[in-house]
Amino acid sequence: MDRGEWDWSGSRSNLVTQYDLVCTNTYKISLGSTLFFTSYPLGSLCIGILSDYIGRKRLSVLFLFVLPTVNCVSALLSNYSAFLACRLVEGFAIGGLTVAFYPLIIEFIGAGARNLSNAVSQCG
After folding, report:
1. How far apart are alpha carbons 82 and 98 in whole angstroms?
2. How far is it, in rounded angstroms, from Cα 45 to Cα 39?
3. d(CA 23, CA 4)
4. Distance of alpha carbon 85 from its chain centroid, rounded?
């Protein structure tokens, strides 16, 4: 059924209706999450290696600017392919930020309390 044939009872706008993610396009609903979680470990690996050469602080600052910018851009997009590209960059950036930022934060905690702080940070 085509989107134009639907009987809408009011104004409804969400991700599914905006990008027409129904019927034959339902696979696209999980594609954004799949790209995000696929690029996350790639970002961790690449940025982990790169941070040894460039420096963790520089890369942390870079990704602290990249991530909010990409998030804002993805919220304003009307093209699904561009939205997916933003999800790919978001996953890469969060993975990289996690690896680059964690050692900087852990240095401020004393050696005796690091095990407890690691446990607390993993639990949320």
Report:
1. 24
2. 10
3. 13
4. 11
